[in-house]
Amino acid sequence: MRWNPQQPSPMPHGRYTDVYSRVSVPLKDADRTWPTKRLTDAPLWVPVDLRDGNQALAEPMDPARKRRFFEMMVSVGYKEIEVGYPSASQTDFDFVRLIAETDIAPDDVTIVVFTPARRDLIERTVESVRGISNPVVIHMYTATAPLWRDLVLARDRADLRELILAGGRDVFELAGDMPNVRFEFSPEVFNQTEPEYVLDLCDAMTELWDARPERPVILNLPATVEIATPNVYADQIEYMSRNLARRENVILSVHPHNDRGTGIACAELAVLAGAERVEGCIFGNGERTGNVDIATLALNLYAQGIDPGIDFSDIDRIRSTVEYCTRMEIHPRHPYVGDLVHTAFSGTHQDAIRKGFIEHHTRAEELGIPEKDAEWKIPYLPIDPADIGRTYDAVIRVNSQSGKGGIAYLLGSGYGIDLPRRLQIDLAGHVQRYTDDTGAEVTADQLWEIFREGYLYSPADGGRVELLGYSTSEDAASPEAAETTVRLRIDGTESTHTVTGHGPVEALATALREAGTGVEILGLTQTSVESGNDSDALTLLEFRDTTGTGNARWVAGRDASVLAASMNAVVGAANLL
After folding, report:
1. How far, in Å, CA of 344 to CA of 351, rounded?
2. Dihedrals φ, ψ of 372, to 5°?
3. Which of these, 73, 127, 64, lies nearest to 91 by C-alpha position?
């Protein structure tokens, strides 16, 4: 039985066929092994931002932007980088020549160039890499899926096989004697190609290119247009990994796109299924919905305690470079790097995060280790923002959806104030009214202003009750004989009260009752408030009138002296009755 079944939509869904009529799933349930495996190591990352990502830009990168992007990728640790499509544009050709003629590429970085299986374009590609001392990969591709064969290339399976092998022979003829060059083949739209056909093509290419351990061939299997659930792609990759004729001489690579929004899952399951190398773009730029996001993939591993092999400790520098070079902003909700991904507005989330930080601090103190070395267990935060160069300033932000936990966190982190729980609840009401009226987010400074206006009393505020002065005398031998003298002015009338056996705060409350203004102190909490270089005592006082009929209320007093702050709070309470 379906509860609340959806009504039929007017959309013409019957125009589309289900994936299983277009894609052959080569494994049976008993055959596949990837579902029981775990990710334990990072694959080889290959950013294709300078080629695949670049060709998807409305305004492709100029040479200066390409160089800046390349140098950023090198600086964070990428060791294999696809730098361009040198037969497609003079800009790409010139950039490859820049690498050949300068030292911008460290010796241990492999340079990848991309070419179709056409002799004149292969010649141009090989010409671009001559003189490069770095390891080089020449990446040849051809679309292989039925729709592409029939509609785009107008070739049957046998004709296309010969076209691909001819291209492979041209690559080997022109670059086979270059000792630093290896080869890569992509059957484009692999995920929509018949498994037995693409297996035959790949085996033929590894034989043609003489794949061996010292010169392995890269077989790159793209989900060029994502059309199926990730488990289907994983089955296809496992089938290839288990059936390739020269598997030990092959580096199995994947290149997922994100048309269904599951490119990340496709890549992760593909690695479980046998892939050793992942091509994608940092933050997922690319045609249509983009290439798989290799930064998110890497940080997903990091969040499981696996070294991703790439340094994201200053992720905002990486983001600013990507945004500058692509002229596109990163979405604020983008995993790990977006402005809001470490931010909680929800009250329940904020309360959990605040408690998590308190427990994290306590645990580190108990172990005698720095907090940055303690095991990370904070609700709603998969990784420590500080690990990727973020501060905690934006972890909790307050709007109309927020609650007491977020308010307390912001006041604590911004001003050092530790609010009692009941005061958190009371203050949340003030903040809610403000956010409902304005519809705006509230900063720590604005929270302090709301708190100050709602609770903080200063003698300069005046009122019907004024504390004109007080003095104390103590007897060390007989504390109960200590005296406090309090001078008050209430409604213009002055009075003096001497109270024995109590401290100054209790004596002031007693004096107020004697003068006809009863304040019952329910609780008093000492904290501090830090603003800039100043640090003052802050007394938070819960009170009601002595008749016991009114609701409990809160007031605060501030002063450099703890005692003066407390006395101010009591006078403030009296003025509110």
Report:
1. 10
2. -65, -15
3. 64
pLDDT in tens, 450-507: 899 999 998 888 899 999 999 988 765 565 667 899 999 999 999 999 998 888 999 9
Whether 534 contacts 525, CB under 8 Å? no
Can you read off the two tokens belonging to residue 230? 């990730």
312 and 184 within one domain: yes
On whether both 394 and 478 belong to a single domain, the answer is no
Q: Write the CB contacts of 285 (distance below 8 Å, at least 6 apart in sequence).
A: 49, 53, 56, 57, 291, 322, 326, 328
- Which residue type occupies 33? T
CB 484 within 8 A of CB 514: no
103 and 165, same domain (yes or no): yes
DSSP H helical ranges for 331-455: 347-367, 404-415, 421-438, 444-455
Residues 435 and 476 in one domain: no
Q: For residue range 225-262, what is the model confidence (pLDDT) as tens digits?
A: 999 999 999 999 999 999 999 999 999 999 999 999 99
In order, the DSSP letters of 106-141 are -TTPEEEEEEES-HHHHHHHHHHHTT--S-EEEEEE
435 and 570 fall within a common domain: no
Domain count, the chain: 3
Q: Does one domain contain both 371 and 309?
A: no
> Can you tell me the distance from the alpha carbon of 438 to that of 338, in angstroms, rounded to the nearest whole number?
25
What is the spatial distance between Cα 208 and Cα 144, in angstroms, rounded to a whole number? Answer: 18
Taking the C-alpha atoms of residue 417 and residue 182, their distance in angstroms, rounded to an integer, is 62
Query: Is the same domain home to 257 and 172?
Result: yes
The listed range with the strongest mean pLDDT (137-151, 341-355, 439-453, 492-506) is 137-151
Query: Which candidate, 61, 13, 52, places its Cα nearest to that of 321?
Result: 61
